[in-house]
């Protein structure tokens, strides 16, 4: 009687561990949702000249005019 109870508890434990393993592995699978590229650009943005005022084109010494 005692052996049957121990076997029953072991079966429940094994089943529980298997269910836990399946849930853990299933939760690790990434869902891959990719969006399509929108290549439609409004007409007002096409063929525009680039902005010539850029902070990268200014020397830092000219930008920070602090006396030493």
Describe what this molecule looks like in 3D.
The chain is mainly alpha-helical and 68 residues long. Helices cover 44% and strands 0% of the residues. The protein is built from 2 helices and no strands. The protein has helices spanning 2-27, 60-63. The mean pLDDT is 76.
Kindly summarize this structure in a few lines.
The protein has two helices and no strands. It has 68 residues and is mostly helical.
Described by the principal axes of the CA atoms, the overall outline is elongated
The major sheet is characterized as: none
User: What is the H-and-E element order?
Assistant: HH
Fraction of residues in helix: 40-55%
What is the overall number of helices?
2
Question: Unreliable stretches, pLDDT < 50, 5 or more residues?
Answer: none
Structural class: mainly alpha
Keywords:
elongated, 68 residues, 0% strand, 2 helices, mainly alpha
List the helices and strands and how they pair.
Elements: H1 2-27, H2 60-63
């Amino acid at each position: 009687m005692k052996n049957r109870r121990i076997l029953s508890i072991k079966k429940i434990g094994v089943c529980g561990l298997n269910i836990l393993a399946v849930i853990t592995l299933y939760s690790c699978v990434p869902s891959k949702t990719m969006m399509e590229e929108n290549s439609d650009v409004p007409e007002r943005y096409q063929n525009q000249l680039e902005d010539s005022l850029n902070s990268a084109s200014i020397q830092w010494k000219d930008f920070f005019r602090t006396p030493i």
